[in-house]
Amino acid sequence: MTINEKTVSTDDxxxxxxxxxxxxxxxxxxxxxxxxxxxxxxxxxxxxxxLAAERRRMPWMAVEKAYxxxxxxxxxxxxxxxxxxRQLIVYRAFFEPGVYGWPDHACRGCxxxxxxxxxxxxxxxxxxxxxxxxxxxQADIERLKARMGWKMPWYTFEGTFDADFGVDEWHGHxxxxxxxxxxxxxxxxxxxGDEALxxxxxxxDITPLGRQEVWEDSxxxxxxxxxxxxxxxxxxxxxxxxxxxxxxxxSDIGEAAFRKSNAGAKK
Length: 267
Fold this sequence. Notes:
single chain, Glutaredoxin
């Protein structure tokens, strides 16, 4: 019989617990400990929001060199990777001869990261495209994507793209912004900066426009819409469509309840 299968006092439970287990406490004590942790977690969240705001104010670097990629439809340039959107995130994944796992698999770390990538429809709805790029031929990339169930656009590059953007010897995400015909590099992250990426929010937080919601601290004139209102089912986004009236009503009620709960917790 385990501790959870019988009624015991917290003192008895603590006598029976393994040496490496935390203390077993009452509901009131657990709630108090959780509340103290929550204060620190909220402070961490606000610090991350402040970092994202600072990231949106980073200087940009003009990309003057022409880069060529091979895609499913043939040769394309860096501008084509945007797929008509303004923001582009490029992840260099190691899949090529000499990489452990070739030709059946890409790098284990890069593959774990690819498994984390969420549905791209939500990212696309915020004018942002995510692509992967490797040195492997397209035939091998398409075979790998089919085997692993990955859906992101994945290009083959040659030349010095990897060396020019800090991903020749290690993985990393480069972020670009397109203004007409001019492309700018706006951000770069690698090493442990890569491991938490994969969600819609983590990707948007490294882009120059951010999540584009009104609560964010962004430079004046940046595009922003009401929080929650643009959210949609992944198969229901339409270009330039107004927010669904019923969803606006539902989200307003939820937001009001959320804010009331937070206000009560602060008293």
